[in-house]
Amino acid sequence: MVGVVPPARAGQGDSRPLMAAAGGPGPTCVLGIDLGTTSVKAALVTGTERGLALAQSCSRETQAHSDSLGEAPQGMEQDVQKIIRALNECLAALPQQQLQQVTHIGISGQMHGVVFWKSDKGCRWSESGAAFEPERVSHLVTWQDGRCSPAFLSSLPPPQSHVSLATGFGCATVFWYLKNSPDFLKAYDAAGTIQDYVVAMLCDLKKPLMSDQNAASWGYFNCRNKSWNTDILKKSGFPVHLLPEVGDPGSIAGRTTCAWHGIPKGAKVGIALGDFQCSVYSCLTERTDAVLNISTSAQLTISMPLGFQPPEAPDPSSAVTYFPYFNGDYLAVAASLNGGNVLATFVGMVAQWAQELGLEVEESAIYPRIIQAALAQKHSKLSVHPTIFGERHLPELLASVSSIGASELSLGHVTRALCRGLVENLCSMLPVQHLQDTGVRRVLGSGSALAKNEVLRQEVERILPFPVVYGKDVDAAVGAAMVMFHSK
Ligand SMILES: Nc1ncnc2c1ncn2[C@@H]1O[C@H](COP(=O)(O)OP(=O)(O)O)[C@@H](O)[C@H]1O
Ligand SMILES: O=C(CO)[C@@H](O)[C@H](O)[C@H](O)[C@H](O)COP(=O)(O)O
């Protein structure tokens, strides 16, 4: 037993679906999955008399980054075959006898991105029925994709949504294909996030289902009436037949049509969820909690009051956006494009410099060294503004370094300053003063980049004047499993 998961607090003010009636026919063993940007995580969560327990977990890096097939400038695509391979490796590493007990599957994953497939040929099940392999499936164009320039985005019709349109958002990517490679879209008749694709394959859905969490992340989705901006899109020639059906987070999308890695056929599969919302769900128990998630990207968030409704129109200049959560609730989110991916880029740069100096150093060996070096440098006057990927509200503001003193140039100084810069950047988007004004009493930390990096945790604890409690590195997968226990 790895640890007992915070039990859901039923009752007033809790955004989470009510716990299944005690002793009711609720699930006993749930598989939670997070199809993240860097790694896939899987978690087996069991119901015990003490609440929910994380029985087993596994993670595998996908190494799925691929060149843009369509030669899209600044394209960021991932090979779906490699994502599914990492998923299969994770499940194969979990105990068979526990997988055989699984009655429900909760799936979350990286939001905004889009993958296309041929609805009745999206995968091929192995002879044994144990696993499926993708077929007639495109690459995943991820949330980090930069093909939609500001000029292209401004040529698109204004959305009737509170979420501003940005590059890497599913609907923006479809518009890009429509304009630059229309024949590409003709090969497919289904689309969704990577997690929607997996749900559709497991349940053999002819029409993909998508939760409003993921629909909102695509753009052109009205969260108030839970519908796509179909009229606006049709007028622009958008292939609206590609838009999935939208359902409520926590609802059941269907049942597995085959046994899957030992999980019996007929297991209930939840509608796919946003990884960020599931990371929050795994730990948020009080409305006075703030959550800081640092995985490939980074988010700092607080709950909005019950009954809050987002504005009708988007505000592209705002650093904070409102994410649909559960039960009609919303989260106010500083969603940064710069999180673990900045540290990963720094590690890649160190490896590249070493190679240019004739040294071969594995990136996996660099992480512990830069962390150790920074632990030895408790302070650094260096000031790093880390936004090498820009931000959605300030796409042109790239990274910068200042206060560079001759004594501040060690690997340890630079690493600590970089970690501090990541946290300061989030706090520039959602200031500490605002957290205090809204009554935040505690910060819950989640995401692998935080779980694996003591220096980052030290800087979090220096900058945020609140107690900080950390989760594990499989938070979104645990959250996706918890949703299945708490859904009606
Ligand atoms: N060995 C390591 N030590 C410290 N940090 C690491 C290590 N390996 C990866 N990371 C950090 O973890 C981040 C990926 O976190 P992860 O939770 O796997 O991402 P996601 O959920 O987006 O797939 C990377 O961007 C990197 O910054
Ligand atoms: O960009 C946003 C929100 O706008 C982020 O929540 C982003 O969608 C998420 O980080 C992605 O879902 C990727 O998550 P992760 O792979 O970084 O865990």
UniProtKB/TrEMBL annotation:
Its EC number is 2.7.1.14. GO terms for molecular function: ATP binding; sedoheptulokinase activity. The keyword Cytoplasm applies. GO terms for cellular component: cytosol. CDD domains: ASKHA_NBD_FGGY_SHK. Its main location: cytoplasm. Residues 30-278 form the Carbohydrate kinase FGGY N-terminal domain. The keyword Mitochondrion does not apply. It holds the Pfam family FGGY_N. GO terms for biological process: cellular response to lipopolysaccharide; glycerol metabolic process; pentose-phosphate shunt. Keywords: ATP-binding, Cytoplasm, Kinase, Nucleotide-binding, Transferase. It comes from the Eukaryota. It is an enzyme of class 2 (transferase). It catalyses: sedoheptulose + ATP = D-sedoheptulose 7-phosphate + ADP + H(+). Residues 1-20 are annotated as: Disordered. It is found in: Cytoplasm. Acts as a modulator of macrophage activation through control of glucose metabolism. Belongs to the FGGY kinase family. This is Sedoheptulokinase. It comes from Zosterops lateralis melanops.
